[in-house]
Fold:
Amino acid sequence: MYDYYLGGGHNLEVDRVAADKAIALMPDIVAVSRANRAFLQRAVRAILDLGVRQFLDLGSGIPTVGHVHEIAQAVDPASRVAYVDTDQVAVAHTRRLLEGVSGVSITRADLTDPPSVLFARGVAELLDFGEPIAVIATAVMHFVPDDRDPHGILNTYRDATVPGSMLVFSYGAYDATRPENMDGLKDLYQKSTSHPLQRRTDAQIAALLDGWHLLHPGLVHANMWRPDNPTLVPSRASMLAALASH
Structure:
């Protein structure tokens, strides 16, 4: 569904049907998704500017439409990216897309089980945990329920990396001006995916980042995070985003 929102070509009919239903409920979900992808690209470039060349992308989906390895390796071909996703179809598609691409891996694992991620061959053998790593958790933590301890999960990844490591974070924000649309969207994801949306307040979303140091401008709407052209930025996008350091 996310690939479809981005205008990618790696999606199935069942994805497109569900995505069109989501768009009918929340027409700006396409703009929000693309604002999130643009934020990710800006954050990756900011991380590269800070000298970090390793990325662990949690819940990566299908790496298409300007994904992490394309952005990072365009700046430094030696950059390494370990993609992780639990969806079998997404992993299979990713494996085909990455065939012949060096410095990149795909692992099927559940981000809510950090040891299964951190000790997986595609992660442990590609990334050097003695050097800083950028952990990417964009548009995924809103699928993690409270009973899986999302804050503790992020802390586990933080503790597994050395000082100087980073976190790229985004989370779908609740739009209180359209409660019926938000309820409909939650119901749709509940029926259409194995990972239903978890609604949290802005304060609860911010609390997930306790223990990390937020870089300027902090936790803001994705399109407001260091925009390339501030004069063209609309007032908000319903996706909170931040870049944080260890």
User: Anything to note?
Assistant: The chain has a mean pLDDT of 85. Strands lie at 54-58, 80-85, 104-108, 134-138, 166-172, 213-214, 220-221, 239-245.
